[in-house]
Amino acid sequence: MSYIFPPQAISAVPVVDSDALYPVHRIYCVGRNYGDHVKEMGGDPKDEAPVFFSKPANAIVVDNAPVRYPQATDDLHHEVEFVVALASGGKDIANDDALDCVFGYAVGIDFTRRDLQAVAKKEGRPWDTAKGFDDSAPVSAINPVAKIGHPHNVRISLSINGELRQDARLSQMIWSVVEIISELSKFYELQAGDLIYTGTPAGVAATVVGDHVVASIETVGSLEFDVI
Ligand code: MN
């Protein structure tokens, strides 16, 4: 088999204490998963079912490489998120089987063109241009379950230029990792290589060129890069 042009490189994430990379198949994201963030965006946490959207696999940025400020926005927001990396999947996964699908966890940022998202929400349009663009999903090395287990009630935080902007605990998630995997698998046949960004706590705000971003989740890892 030949191709009419060389295929694009496979997107892949480093794995803690391993020479082998984690090949990314798809990126799913959960919206509105921390009550205080739902409120800051003008919603009511009690009304919300999980909201799913996706990003292209090549939206990841690894190895703390700089993030290129995207075109078509004047309001790029940071959203620090707990990232689930699947090693297997399926359809209609039962809650009891969900954690068996997880290879490991990472720290990620769901960068959002908030101005485009505001228009999409107002007009009832898809979120794609607000969410799925180049460099919109920086991610740390994946820490395997075999090393760290399944973190819960640990701190998740993000600082810009040394100023703390987001600071919460994973136990504040409205939908747990188990529930997210189970719910998502009602819509898609999940597969090895699928990453799930599980939503952001309160404190989202704009980033600008020149910012230094540090994000971390206790026991999982950290992420640090410049916006250029
Ligand atoms: Mn998000």
What does this molecule look like?
- By secondary structure, the chain is an alpha+beta fold.
- The protein has a single domain (12-226), classed as Fumarylacetoacetase-like, C-terminal domain (Fumarylacetoacetate hydrolase, domain 2, Alpha-Beta Complex), CATH 3.90.850.
- Helix content is 16%, strand content 32%.
- The protein is globular.
- It starts with 11 loop residues before the first strand and ends with a strand.
- 39% of the residues are buried.
- The model has no long low-confidence stretch (mean pLDDT 96).
- Bound molecules: manganese (II) ion.
- Manganese (II) ion (MN) binds at residues 29, 31, 79, 81, 110, 199-200.
- Manganese (II) ion binds at residues 29, 31, 79, 81, 110, 199-200.
CATH superfamily: Fumarylacetoacetase-like, C-terminal domain
Give the cofactors and ligands: manganese (II) ion
What helical percentage do the residues reach?
10-25%
In one word, what is the shape? globular
Number of distinct helices: 6
Order of helices and strands: EEEHEEEEHEEHHEEHEEHEEEE
For the termini, the CA-CA separation is 39 Å
> What is the strand arrangement across the widest sheet?
4-3-14-7-8-11
CATH C-level category: Alpha Beta
Largest sheet report: 6 strands, mixed
CATH topology term: Fumarylacetoacetate hydrolase, domain 2
Which terms summarize this structure?
228 residues; Fumarylacetoacetate hydrolase, domain 2; four-stranded antiparallel sheet; 6 helices; 17 strands
Brief sketch in words of this structure:
With 228 residues, the protein is α+β, with helices and mostly antiparallel strands.
